[in-house]
Amino acid sequence: MDITTHESAQVSPHDAAAVPASGRPLRVAVVVASNREGRFAPVIADWFVSRAAAHDDLDVDVIDLAGIDLPTTLSRDPSDATKAVLAQVSPRLAAADAFVVLTPEYNHSFPASLKNLIDWHGSEWHAKPVGFVSYGGMSGGLRAVEQLRQVFAEMHATTIRETVSFHGPWGQFDEDGQHKDPAAADSAAKALLNQLTWWAHALRDAKSVRPYAG
Ligand SMILES: Cc1cc2nc3c(=O)[nH]c(=O)nc-3n(C[C@H](O)[C@H](O)[C@H](O)COP(=O)(O)O)c2cc1C
Fold first, then answer.
1. Does some domain include residue 92?
2. Average pLDDT of the segment spanning 51-80
3. CA 150 to ligand 1 center in whole angstroms
4. How far is the CA of 105 from the centre of ligand 1 (A)?
5. Which residues belong to any copy of the NADPH-dependent FMN reductase-like domain (predicted)?
6. Would 68 be classed as within a structural domain?
7. Closest ligand 1 atom to Cα of 109
8. In terms of residue numbers, what domain contains 197?
9. Closest ligand 1 atom, CA of 107?
10. Using CB atoms within 10 A as the burial measure, which of 33, 106, 186, 190 is most buried?
11. pTM value?
């Protein structure tokens, strides 16, 4: 598995298209939704990326919204500064065959940073699968996930049934970010990734013979 981060990766959709779809690894964009100061998100992200490493047919690109400073004012004619920010992220969303969204729950929903990323884009999400890793208090972030399923349906995306959800994750990881009792979470991640890769292959194969009509 090849892991890239937003600091290092500038993926061209044209590069990805140069290799036959069936002959290249699945490109999975892992979107880290929280950009909150003092956030717990990096622990969840590092854990999930290590789980994805077990799948050697995945090319993982971590898109951390803490490093993507998109304005909340949407525009059809963005400024040069906004175009520069979009250039950091849009080609990577476009190049992805699948997404995994890592989201906490804020006030029974998902972070505004994530909605902003979704709203700035359109076709980048189309006809692709989206899986969720969530975390929060009693609900484990699942209320955020259920709302995201509605949003991603509007984005022509397919959401994956299996989820990973951490209920009060703060004491579950040691100082090195290792899960202290990993069996259940590892099993959930495996199920999510198995479903995600099935859908990603199926949709990529379908689009190679019949472009998505929208
Ligand atoms: C503004 C805000 C609202 C929150 N609302 C909820 C909530 O409704 N339900 C819940 O289970 N946890 C809630 N939490 C707890 C977060 O899910 C928890 O702090 C999580 O670690 C936040 O992710 P982050 O640290 O990566 O930003 C809230 C946290 C914040 C900051």
1. yes
2. 96
3. 20
4. 5
5. 27-167
6. yes
7. 8
8. 2-209
9. 8
10. 33
11. 0.91
CA distances from 133 to 50, 59, 89, 182, 193 (A): 13, 18, 20, 15, 11
- What CATH number should be reported for the domain holding residue 153? 3.40.50.360
Q: How many domains does the chain have?
A: 1
Largest Cα span, the chain: 49
**Mutation choice for ligand 1 from 36, 101, 105, CB with most ligand atoms inside 8 A:** 105
Answer whether residue 208 shows pLDDT above 70: yes
The CB of 41 under 6 Å from ligand 1? The reply is yes
71-123 pLDDT tens trace: 999 999 999 999 999 999 999 999 999 999 999 999 999 999 999 999 999 99
Q: Assess if residue 214 is contained within a domain.
A: no
Tell whether ligand 1 has an atom less than 6 A from the beta carbon of residue 167.
no
Tell me if 164 is assigned to some domain. Answer: yes
The three-state (H, E, C) secondary structure of the chain, written as one string: CEEEECCCCCCCHHHHHHCCHHHCCEEEEEEECCCCCCCCHHHHHHHHHHHHCCCCCEEEEEEEHHHCCCCCCCCCCCCHHHHHHHHHHHHHHHHCCEEEEEEECECCECCHHHHHHHHCCCHHHCCCEEEEEEEECCCCCHHHHHHHHHHHHHCCCEEEEEEEEEECHHHCECCCCCECCCHHHHHHHHHHHHHHHHHHHHHHHHHHHCCCCC
Residue type present at position 71: P
143 Cβ inside 6 Å of ligand 1: no
Instruction: Return d(Cα 60, Cα 28) in angstroms, integer.
Output: 5
